[in-house]
């Protein structure tokens, strides 16, 4: 894709701070650095989001996540945790439409990053939960 900033990074048309590269995957520092070491891991092949992955691409890309995660842990022993985030589509906060996985080191409760998961458990009965699960299960391709 010609207008994709991440494709341009992969093709070395735009500079980046590379932390890992192989034939299919490229990982580099996110320019925003939500926390020190904030890294993006992307497939070199342009895919917009997770919905465009096939099994082989998913296996290739996601197999690199632990490798880069361990590198972050070794590089920053003061790291207390790691968020791994993959946003898909604008509603889910995807802002660059080339699939990417954020690896965000966490150094303490006061670092400049947070996530909130609402608890809506009381809004669903066990029967509704079962209905939701069956609806999803029915759509999973085996």
From TrEMBL:
Q: Which Gene3D superfamilies match?
A: HIT-like
The protein's matches in CDD domains, at most eight in alphabetical order, are given as: HINT_subgroup
Q: What's the protein called, per UniProt?
A: Histidine triad protein
Q: Its GO biological process terms?
A: nucleotide metabolic process
Q: Where is the HIT domain?
A: 5-115
Matching SUPFAM superfamilies: HIT-like (SSF54197)
Q: Origin organism of this chain?
A: Enterococcus rivorum
Q: Where is this motif: Histidine triad motif?
A: 98-102
Which residues are the active-site ones? Answer: 100
For this chain, one GO molecular function annotation is: catalytic activity
Lineage of source species: Bacteria, Bacillati, Bacillota, Bacilli, Lactobacillales
């Amino acid at each position: 894709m010609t207008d994709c900033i991440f494709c341009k990074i992969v093709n070395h048309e735009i500079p980046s701070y590379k932390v890992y590269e192989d034939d299919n995957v490229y990982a580099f520092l996110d320019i925003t650095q939500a926390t020190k070491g904030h890294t993006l891991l992307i497939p070199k092949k342009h895919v917009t989001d997770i919905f465009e992955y096939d099994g082989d691409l998913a296996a290739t890309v996601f197999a690199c996540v632990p490798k880069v995660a361990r590198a972050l842990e070794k590089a920053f022993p003061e790291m207390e945790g790691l968020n791994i985030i993959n946003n898909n589509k604008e509603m889910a906060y995807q802002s660059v439409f080339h699939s990417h996985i954020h690896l965000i080191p966490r150094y303490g409760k006061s670092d400049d990053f947070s996530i909130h998961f609402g608890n809506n458990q009381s809004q669903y009965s066990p029967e509704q939960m079962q209905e939701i699960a069956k609806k999803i299960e029915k759509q999973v391709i085996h």
